[in-house]
């Protein structure tokens, strides 16, 4: 099948900037639109979802995702709402949940459905908390309001969330999907979040050698 590479640098700006660009919203599709744009517009990390014949892979859903959403997004910078609705209808049928076509969902629910149940992809993350390991496809940032964080960046949010939840990454993930703090219509924890173009996960890795903040040698204790 046809394929178009992800958009980079000047090409990304040229193709994606302006009116009638991105993924057109319709019937509470914002959670899915934002997730699909993030996963595919400017990165090829998850392109295996579009081509690889996974064990449980539903080829119809895979072709809709590739031919009606990702390829048009990368080629013209625009995806019409009808294409996303076509995918939502298939997810409703496969996921046995009638509200995928009209209700707002948690992005994690969408990712788990399409990656695990429909395409059969192995989990992307291995986390450890309290000696127990768990596999998942994305990480949602949970944290209490902190007054010293007015306009945080992603690095700060991930580090503080892992610290407060006593979490560690068991291994370096091939793809680290991070969901920003949730908020409702009446309350926003942060008015803005600055994207971190690079993420340092040294302090998040289990049993990773780290530098002492006092002397610079390999640390033996963690505060």
Number of strands: 7
How does the helix and strand content classify structurally? alpha/beta
- Which residue ranges are poorly predicted, with pLDDT under 50 across at least 5 consecutive positions? none
What is the helical fraction, as a range of percent? 25-40%
Instruction: Give the termini distance in whole angstroms.
Output: 53 Å
**How many domains make up the 3D coordinates?**
2
Shape: globular
Domain Peptidase C19 ubiquitin carboxyl-terminal hydrolase: 22-201
Organism: Chloroceryle aenea
GO cellular component, one term: microtubule
Protein name: CYLD hydrolase
Describe the structure.
By secondary structure, the protein is of the alpha/beta class. The chain folds into two domains: 9-118, Cathepsin B, Chain A; 125-219, no CATH class. The chain is 36% helix and 9% strand. The chain has seven helices and seven strands, in the order αβαααβααβββαββ. It has a three-stranded antiparallel sheet with strand order 4-3-6. It has a two-stranded parallel sheet with strand order 1-2. Helix 4 packs antiparallel against helix 5. It is globular and about 55 Å long. The N and C termini lie far apart (53 Å). It is found in: Cytoplasm, Cytoskeleton, Spindle. Keywords: Cytoplasm, Hydrolase, Microtubule. This is CYLD hydrolase.
